[in-house]
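Async update (no meeting this week)

Hi team, since we skipped the sync, here's where things stand on the single-chain job. The sequence we agreed to prioritize is pasted below, unchanged from the tracker. I ran it this morning and attached the output directly underneath so nobody has to dig for it. Comments welcome in thread, and please keep replies under the output.
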Amino acid sequence: MIDNQNNPLVSVIMPCFNHEKFVGQSIESVLNQTYDNIEFIVLDNGSTDHSYDVIKRYDGRIDKIIQFAENDLNAAGRVLLENCTGNYIAFMTSDDIWDKQKIEKQMDVLKRNAEIKACFTWTDTVDENLNLTGKEGGNIFRQKNRSRYEWLEKLISEGNCLAFPSAVVEKKAYFAVFEILKPFYQLGDLFTWIQMLLENDIHIIEEPLVWFRWHSSETSRNMSLPNQKTNIRTRNEKLILIEEIIESMEDEVFIRTFGKFFRKQDACSKEEILCEKFFLLLKLTENSSIFGQCAINYYFRHNRYSLESGYSFANALDSLYGYSYMDFQEYCAVNGVGAMNYQIQTLHQEQNLCLAAHKTLWEVMNTELDLEHSKNFYRQRMFQRLQNDKKEVIKLIIEYIKGILVFIDKTDDGMSEKEFSQLIHSVWAIRDIMEDLWHTFLRFDLDVKEEEWNLCRETIQKETVTAEEFCDFILPFLLNCYSILLQYSSYS
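Output:
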């Protein structure tokens, strides 16, 4: 095909791996495009089915057919790009289908707007038989157009929502990103689109021009299909990606993208922007715990001390924003990899305790004890199986509840509003610990009713609690819990 100014050459690249059922339809949808200047390059990436046989049927209509003896995803992408000669690149997948006017409509946008370097479309998600799946409103790839800075904020905060098989990008702009592309497996698309947005505008054609197949069979499943491996890889890659993007983002772009979240709305100096980037990572932690480690890494990476000026990042945070070294240490105590590992350890401990509780219950069921002796037997065995830290917690909670009961007894003649408020705050202070004790072993105790616990918990979690609610739902449970825990601790 002849490259001309009116219709620049578009290189359509398509890798294929074990998609013999679908690759013919994908090829046809490219060959039937109304745009008249397309270079079509197809690579069979070591398929073990008959995909290559299907591709070869189009020999003479496909400009270049490449075959790998073995599957190599990284090399396939590189070889496809090396063979592109077009001004623009369109990415096709071997199980999806394009509307026949897709490239024509996208090139019309790109030709008329020189500042736009990438054009996407909406997609319809379909199953293997091309039946629509889900509701239109729930399709993540049906996004409205936004400014460059709005896109940056959305992609960094929420993740990718731009459909790869819908993209047509200017080759020069894409290759500038490809040269710095990290070896991402799950988040390569997200990294690419964010890097392009740092320098260029993009556009969405708000019309479904791609049928995006979503399937989960082992031979043709989507790379982004949620499972343990993809979830772990995604979390690992997200940490690296966000650190890379925030760190390298130019001040002006950062201000225009995230300025509305700044703690100092007029922040513009080098020191202030460094601090605002740190606070952004703290804010992102609210959306995903993975950003907690990003913030911690960022703080340590930038906290270099200068003997000449006495400057350090920690000093800047404190002097400019009132964020102290100990504020950071408090953050480190509940976030990052350390917190994740602790949560995992705690989960394992709780699982072990639940298993121990079930084992203890089984032992109780296999005895010929009466009900009262069965309860005592369970509590003795269960307490022996608790770890020492949990035993200490029980003793502390006993003393704490005792203090609450003594406080109530002292104010029996009449409690002031201030005293009742103090009482409620005292109960609020132990609600998380009580929740933990309930889940690990109290829920298996024959004298603790789940309905009573639920009523107590729901009442404690309310913003305001009346005296009547306290007497009806919280106090009875505390009294019962106090007497039961006393019996547990008696076996120490």
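Quick observations from my side:
Strands lie at 10-16, 38-45, 64-68, 88-91, 97-98, 116-126, 168-170, 201-213.
The chain has 20 helices and eight strands.
Reply here if anything looks off.
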